[in-house]
Amino acid sequence: MNWFLFFLTLFTPSVALAASDPALDPLSYDAGAWSPYVVGAGIGVLSWLTFYFSDKAIGASSFYAAVAGGIGKAVAPKHTMRLDYYKKHPPHLDWSVVFVTCTILGGFIAAWTGGEFRNEWLHPMWVARFGDSIPLRAGVAMGGGVLMAFGARLAGGCTSGHGISGTMQLSVGSWVAFFSFFAGGVATAFALFRL
Amino acid sequence: MIDPGKAVKETPPEKPAPPKPGKLIGAAIFGLAFGYLLQKGGVAKYNVLLGALLLEDWTVAKIMLTAIVVGMVGVFTLHHFARVNLHLVPTRLGAQSVGGILFGVGFALIAYCPGTGAAALGQGSWDVLFGMAGLIIGSYLFAEMSGFLKRTVETWGEKGKVMLPDILRIPRGVFLPGFALLLLGILYALQAFTVR
Asked: Is residue B13, in this structure, part of any structural domain at all?
């Protein structure tokens, strides 16, 4: 088997780049427990319900802005409430805060009942590429979070707000954001894992 | 640009007052369902999300496109019969492309996004906590600069609440079924040609 892989990598450089080490191949790890079509249809129906019962579109990123605003209000109330964004979106326990908090709980229930609770700090695919240093992962993830939130606020939504809710309403800006998310993401992921 | 349904008034502007408790119960139930579905779909997993960005695992694309088709048909039907308001974010080409690319770079670095990250935390993938700390810091940083950004980047390519059928000048009733069929065709191709 090792010899086979050796010759495979010798003669097919693209395969060598993509999957010579199974630990770096995303397909060597678990997929979802349910069919993606069932889950996708479920999320679609869930949007009917949030539109109908809550007069809201599904979105997640504003949760983090509300938490940041809440912390800002506790630490530097005057300064925080002078900022343009928080004048328009005063941070309080609103729909999106409750929604995303319960998303965490929903993820827990699904993982726990499905025997998929991971309880891990580093995913093996990350370890295979970058080693088992938690501070390194912490720095990269935190830096990524800063960029992601800044980008989401500038774009006006995230993979949920634009990627699902905005695109399904045929919003031009949401489709632009959707393709921009994946353009930036694909380029960076290849730089991280395939160079 | 967007005609409200027959009996529905224009979407009222976001009220700064805290919402009624009844609304928050809905938020709790829908949030639970959202997190449950995301985890069952596998999109709270590092390898599935990174696999999407490495163009090897198409689970994310299949879930998103299915959600878009199902959601679109239902929401526009409800809107036609004046049962719901639409909630479009105004199109700002500059902010959405620049912000979108920044978001994407961050996406590859964390591997989780704001919604799937919440489900990943519930799943016990603790590395998302660092990402969430970054998301909170980044949100505040944006708020810090929001006055400046509103006067600059956010004015570039500002188009208001426009929809694809508007700019393509196709009647919505014609565009919708056509677009749904196009997305179903892409889903069919994904199913036929991808491993996962």
From this structure: no
